[in-house]
Design goal:
With 195 residues, the chain is an alpha/beta fold. Helices cover 35% and strands 18% of the residues. It has a single domain (3-193), classed as Rossmann fold (3-Layer(aba) Sandwich), CATH 3.40.50. The protein has a seven-stranded mixed β-sheet, sandwiched between helices. Strands 4-5 form a two-stranded parallel ribbon.
C-alpha cells in the first residue's frame, strides 16, 4: 500500500468490502508498506477503512517474509492484506518482490487461522484477461487446501479461508448487497466469482 494514494477509488472499494463483511467478525489491516509512512497518515488510512492496523513495518527486498508475516499468522481476527500490486503466482524479480504478496505467504496465513477470513487486494492481473488471472490464482490456492472467491472490478480482491463453510457465509453476505455486480457469465467484467 502506498499511502500517498489514500482515499482513491480503490480505497473506497476496500472500505466497502470490509464494511460489508463486518458481520463476519472484526478486521485488522496489514498495509504491507514499502515506503516509510507518516504515522498520522497511516492512522488516517486505518480510520478511512474503519479498522486497526496490524503492522506498519516496512517490506523490502531484504525482509525475512516469514518474520514479517508472523503477526498475520497469529492474528485471531479477520485480516485485510494490502500489497502495492497484488498477489503473484510466479516469484517476481527480487527488486520487485516487496510490491507483491506471494501465494505461499497467503496460504501460510490462511492455514494458520482456519476460522478466519483473509481479504487480499490484487491488481496483479493480466490486462484484458483479469477473470482468467483470478481463476488461475484461485485454482492455485485451492490446490493448497485454501478456499476462496474473488471480486473483479477496477479494484480486484480475493477472499480466502481454510474453512469452506465460513467462506460460503461470506459469499452469501456479499451477494446479498443490492447493486454489487455478480459474475455469472464469465464475460462480465465486474462482480463476484467462484471457481
Amino acid at each position: 500500500m502506498r499511502l500517498n494514494y489514500l482515499g482513491d477509488s480503490q480505497d473506497i472499494v476496500k472500505r466497502c468490502l470490509i464494511h460489508w463483511l463486518n458481520p463476519m467478525g472484526s478486521w485488522k489491516a496489514h498495509p504491507m508498506l514499502t515506503e516509510a509512512a507518516d504515522p498520522h497518515i497511516a492512522q488516517e488510512y486505518a480510520k478511512f477503512l474503519g479498522v486497526e492496523l496490524l503492522s506498519t513495518d516496512l517490506l523490502s527486498e531484504n525482509t525475512n517474509r516469514d518474520k514479517y508475516f508472523a503477526a498475520a499468522r497469529a492474528l485471531q481476527e479477520n485480516l485485510f492484506l494490502d500489497p502495492d500490486t497484488g498477489l503473484t503466482t510466479p516469484k517476481p524479480d527480487h527488486r520487485e518482490s516487496p510490491r507483491y504478496l506471494f501465494i505461499r505467504d497467503l496460504v501460510k496465513i490462511a492455514d494458520s487461522r482456519p476460522e478466519r477470513l483473509t481479504l487480499v487486494f490484487d491488481m496483479s492481473l493480466p490486462h484484458g484477461s483479469e477473470y482468467a488471472g483470478l481463476r488461475n490464482k484461485l485454482t492455485r490456492i485451492e490446490q493448497r487446501g485454501i478456499h476462496g472467491f474473488a471480486y473483479s472490478s477496477h479494484a480486484s480482491f480475493l477472499l480466502v479461508s481454510k474453512d469452506a463453510k465460513l467462506l460460503t457465509e461470506a459469499f452469501k453476505l456479499l451477494r446479498s448487497h443490492p447493486g454489487l455486480p455478480l459474475i455469472d457469465p464469465p464475460d462480465r467484467r465486474a462482480g463476484l466469482m467462484t471457481l
